[in-house]
Design a protein that fits this description.
With 181 residues, the protein is of the alpha+beta class. The protein has 2 domains: 7-143, VSR Endonuclease (Endonuclease, Chain A, 3-Layer(aba) Sandwich); 146-181, no CATH class. It has 7 helices and 4 strands, in the order H-H-E-E-E-H-E-H-H-H-H. The protein is globular and about 50 Å long. Bound molecules: zinc ion (ZN). Keywords: DNA damage, DNA repair, Endonuclease, Hydrolase, Nuclease. GO terms for molecular function: endonuclease activity; hydrolase activity.
Length: 181
């Protein structure tokens, strides 16, 4: 189907897809920063130019508009009434590209979190942002925590439980009260 927009209108229209510093992105950035996370934004050398990159967590976050990225089952995703085929194709292509970028990132060892615009509506925002915190903490503990905090009493003599500590470090850190046991 022919494009009904002039090239100029089309260009403006398309440029919005990749627009940066959108309000949803800023909400997440402020939230993460306030909780002590440090990150880089719009990292061009990674596939898909992730909106937020948390290197320490080996995690990237995409903040997606529900329309442009075709959020399935979302009430904010409605195809325009005219040019339905055009929009359908366009959004399918966006979704396919999103998928390929995610696959590339995962192959590179990144965790990919996709945040939808609708998840930041005021009524659900806190819940979803707190969910994001949990996810990040979980990822960190699962994959990157060098010193696992195992209560010494429970660890006993099983040094394997202190995942990455050498025996010397383990003894040095051992609380005094346990040394006479
Ligand atoms: Zn949505």
């Amino acid at each position: 189907m022919a494009d009904v927009l002039t090239p100029e209108q089309r260009r403006k229209c398309m440029s919005r897809i990749r627009s940066r510093n959108t309000r949803p992105e800023i909400i997440i950035r402020k939230f993460l920063f306030a909780h002590g996370f440090r990150f880089r934004i719009n990292v061009k050398r990674l596939p898909g130019t992730p909106d937020i990159v948390l290197r320490k967590y080996k995690t990237v976050i995409f903040v997606n508009g529900c329309f442009w990225h075709g959020h399935e089952g979302c009430r904010y995703f409605r195809l325009p009434k005219s040019n339905v085929d055009f929009w359908k194709n366009k959004i399918e292509r966006n979704k396919e590209r999103d998928l390929q970028e995610r696959i590339k990132l995962r192959d590179m060892g990144w965790h990919v979190i996709q945040f939808w615009e609708c998840q930041l509506k005021p009524s659900v925002r806190n819940e979803n942002l707190n969910g994001l915190l949990c996810t990040l903490n979980h990822l960190f503990l699962e994959n990157f925590a060098v010193y696992r905090t195992v209560p010494y009493g429970k660890a006993g003599k099983d040094l394997n439980l202190i995942a990455a500590e050498t025996e010397v470090e383990y003894k040095k850190n051992k609380p005094l009260k346990n040394q006479n046991n």
